[in-house]
Automatic annotation (TrEMBL):
Pfam families, per database record: EPSP_synthase
Gene: murAA
Residues that coordinate or bind UDP-N-acetyl-alpha-D-glucosamine: R94, R123, P124, I125, D126, L127, D306, I328
Broad enzyme group: transferase
InterPro entries reported for this sequence: Enolpyruvate_Tfrase_dom, Enolpyruvate_Tfrase_sf, MurA_subfamily, RNA3'P_cycl/enolpyr_Trfase_a/b, UDP_GlcNAc_COvinyl_MurA
The keyword Cytoplasm is annotated on this UniProt entry: yes
GO terms for MF: UDP-N-acetylglucosamine 1-carboxyvinyltransferase activity
Entry EC no(s): 2.5.1.7
Domain of life: Bacteria
The protein, known as: UDP-N-acetylglucosamine 1-carboxyvinyltransferase
Length: 419
C-alpha cells in the first residue's frame, strides 16, 4: 500500500504532458478481441486499469505484450478459446464489462462475473443487455453472472433510455459483425466513443455518426488487425487545469483537444481563470480574482461528472456560494466528507452540493473514496496550509499516470510513500 503526501502552498510553474485517455484505451483493448490479427496500441497510458483488463484478456488465452518503456501494447486474440474471463479479475474493475460486446460478436457467447469498480453509484448494465437482446442474443442474469448466447446477431434499431457511454460502446462492438444495419439512437456522444469508432473502422468496420446522438453500423463479415493511438485524456487535462486555478498559478499543458474540453474551459473562464490555447497546447492562468459559479453535470457535451469532485475542491477556495448539481451518479459526493476534514464548507442536499468558499484549506489525512475524488483531494492538498496525506491511492493509480511525478515537474511538494 502507498499514500501520497502533499505539502501545500507552492506556486506551480512549468509544463506538463497529458497521457492518452483511460476511458478511450479500455474499450479499444476490449475491441481487439474482434480480430484474430494482431492489434497495436501506441502511446497507451500505463495505468492499473490497463494492466487489469490486459490480465482479464490473458485469462481467456489472448496474448498481450505490455511494453511500459515504449507505452505500447500488442494484442493477439487469435488463441482465445474461453468466453468466461477469470471472475476475480473481472470483479476488480467495472470496465471488464466491455468484453461482452466483442465476445458476443465474434464467438456468439460470453459468461461474465458481475464486475466491480468505483463505488459512485449503481451504474446498472441493463442498457447493455437490452441492446444485445435487440440484436438477437439470449441473455440471462443470475448467481453473480451474466451470460448471453446467439447463433447469429441481426442488426436492429436500438434506443437507449439514457446516453450511456458503456452501453453505446458495447452495442457498437456487438453490432460490427451483425447481419445488416444497426442504428443506436440517443447514443452517447463522448469523444471516447468517436475514438473507439475510429479504431474499429481502421479494422474494417463500417460505423457512421459516432460522436453524435445517432450511430449507424453496417455489419461486416470480419475485422483485421490495426495500429491506433488513443486520444488525449480530457479528464487528466481538466485536472491539471484546476490545479493551476486552485493554487493560483500559471502552467502550460501539452496534449489537449479544445473541442473535448469546451465545458471545462467555459466554466473555468466563467470563474475568472484565463485560458489560452494554441494547437494542442494550453496555458492556464489562475492568478486573477476568482468568483463562485454554479455547475450541473450532464452527458457530453455537458460538464463531465468525472470533473465534478475536482472543481468542488477549487470552489471550496473561492469566496461566495457555488452550487454543483450531479445528474449522472447518485453517490458521487463522497469526497465532500473528506474535503470537510480539510476545512471545506460543503453541504449536501440530495443531488446538489452547496459550497461556501473558505479563507484557507488545512492539511489533514484523507481517503481517496474513488478515482476522481482521490485526484481532487490531491488538488486540495496543493492549496492547503500544511501537510495532507491521501490514502487508498490505488484508486488514483487507476486513472492517472505517475500523478505525483507530473506534479513534481510543476514544482509541487508532493511524494509517494509506501506504508
Amino acid at each position: 500500500m502507498s499514500k501520497i503526501i502533499v505539502r501545500g502552498g507552492n506556486i506551480l510553474k512549468g509544463e506538463v504532458n497529458i497521457s492518452a485517455a483511460k476511458n478511450s484505451v479500455l474499450p479499444i483493448i476490449a475491441g481487439c478481441i474482434l480480430s484474430d490479427d494482431k492489434c497495436i496500441i501506441d502511446q497507451a497510458p500505463m495505468l492499473e486499469d490497463v494492466f487489469v483488463i490486459s490480465d482479464v484478456l490473458r485469462s481467456v488465452c489472448a496474448e498481450i505484450d505490455v511494453n511500459r518503456k515504449d507505452s505500447r501494447i500488442i494484442i493477439d486474440s487469435t488463441a482465445i478459446k474461453d468466453c468466461e474471463p477469470a471472475g476475480e479479475l473481472v470483479r476488480k474493475m467495472r470496465g471488464s464489462f466491455l468484453l461482452m460486446g466483442p465476445m458476443i460478436s465474434r464467438f456468439g457467447r460470453f459468461k461474465l462475473s458481475l464486475p466491480g469498480g468505483c463505488n459512485i453509484g449503481t451504474r446498472p448494465i441493463d442498457l447493455h443487455l437490452k441492446g444485445f437482446s435487440a440484436l438477437g442474443a439470449e441473455v440471462n442474469v443470475g448467481h453473480g453472472y451474466v451470460e448471453a448466447y446467439a447463433k447469429k446477431l441481426i442488426g436492429s434499431k436500438i434506443y437507449l433510455d439514457f446516453p450511456s457511454v458503456g452501453a453505446t460502446e458495447n452495442i457498437m462492438m456487438a453490432a460490427v459483425m451483425a447481419e445488416g444495419e444497426t442504428i443506436i439512437e440517443n447514443a452517447a456522444a463522448e469523444p471516447e466513443i468517436e475514438d473507439l469508432a475510429k479504431f474499429l473502422n481502421s479494422m474494417g468496420a463500417n460505423i457512421i455518426g459516432a460522436g453524435s446522438g445517432t450511430i449507424r453500423i453496417i455489419g461486416v463479415k470480419s475485422l483485421r488487425g490495426t495500429t491506433h493511438r488513443p486520444i488525449y485524456d480530457r479528464i487528466e487535462a481538466g485536472t491539471f487545469m484546476i490545479a493551476a486555478a486552485i493554487t493560483r498559478s500559471r502552467i502550460k499543458i501539452n496534449g489537449v483537444n479544445e473541442e473535448h474540453l469546451k465545458p471545462v474551459i467555459a466554466k473555468l473562464t466563467e470563474a475568472g481563470v484565463f485560458i489560452k490555447i494554441e494547437g494542442d497546447t494550453m496555458v492556464v492562468d489562475g492568478t486573477g480574482d476568482l468568483k463562485p459559479i454554479d455547475i450541473k453535470t450532464m452527458p457530453y457535451p455537458g460538464f463531465p461528472t468525472d470533473m465534478q469532485s475536482q472543481i468542488a475542491g477549487l470552489l471550496s477556495t473561492v469566496h461566495g456560494t457555488s452550487i454543483i448539481t450531479e445528474t449522472i451518479f447518485e453517490n458521487r459526493f463522497m469526497h465532500a466528507a473528506e474535503m470537510k476534514r480539510m476545512g471545506a464548507n460543503i453541504k449536501i442536499d440530495g443531488r446538489s452540493a452547496v459550497i461556501e468558499g473558505v479563507n484557507k484549506l488545512t492539511g489533514a489525512e484523507v481517503r481517496a473514496t474513488d478515482l476522481r475524488a482521490g485526484a481532487a483531494l490531491i488538488l486540495c492538498g496543493l492549496a492547503a496550509e500544511g501537510e495532507t496525506q491521501v490514502t487508498d491511492i490505488y484508486h488514483v493509480d487507476r486513472g492517472y499516470v505517475d500523478i505525483e511525478k507530473k506534479f513534481q515537474g510543476l514544482d509541487a511538494d508532493i511524494e509517494r510513500v509506501n506504508v
